[in-house]
Amino acid sequence: LAGFSMGGAIAIRYMARHEGADISKLILLSAAAPAFTKRPGYPYGMRKQDIDDMIEQFKSDRPKTLADLGKQFFEKKVSPELRQWFLNLMLEASSYGTIHSGIALRDEDLRKDLAAIKVPALILHGGKDKIAPFDFARELKRGIKQSELVPFVNSGHGAFYEEKEKINRLIAQFAGS
User: Catalytic annotation on 155?
Assistant: First the structure.
């Protein structure tokens, strides 16, 4: 099972809720987890008020808010066309889905779920991630017993594109082991 960004949080919740079901390995790519917002005992991520403000911006001008978010996605230079393609992908989500994703990111705390993961986990995360800070990956490594953390030192949230050859090689090795 692999999850990117918010999909990483969903994969963690699935593993905990369903005791891993028939999943033998977990891959977390730039996971927006174990918590996206600061809270007691967790000084990482955004303030809850910042997410509330973003939700209000989604309601008033979702395309601009998503475009601004997209500017933080890559650390390395990408073409304007690729950036536009990513914006188009984000705009395909419904307004309702975008707002409720913001609410979930603001409110969910998966720290207790990490101990329920009983399979090997590969954590791949950009060292310069401005959306899901690298501290998230350190917390995932600390909470998942059978985990390996591979930092992508010069990449951002879009490390899967910025260092695609390395990520593909690591995923193939992990899946084949």
Answer: no
Q: Tell me the average pLDDT across 106-118.
A: 97
Reply yes or no on whether 125 is catalytic.
Answer: no
Q: pTM of whole model > 0.90?
A: yes
- CATH number of the domain located at residue range(s) 2-176 in this protein: 3.40.50.1820
Q: Report the alpha-carbon distance of residue 104 to residue 109 in Å, rounded.
A: 9
* Whether 5 is catalytic: yes
Q: Considering the candidates 30, 113, 125, 129, report the single residue annotated as catalytic.
A: 129
| Mode of pairing for the β-strands spanning 147-152 and 2-4 | unpaired
Single out the residue of 145, 147, 173 nearest to residue 31, CA to CA. 147
What is the DSSP secondary-structure string of 51-69?
HHHHHHHHHHHHHHHHHHH
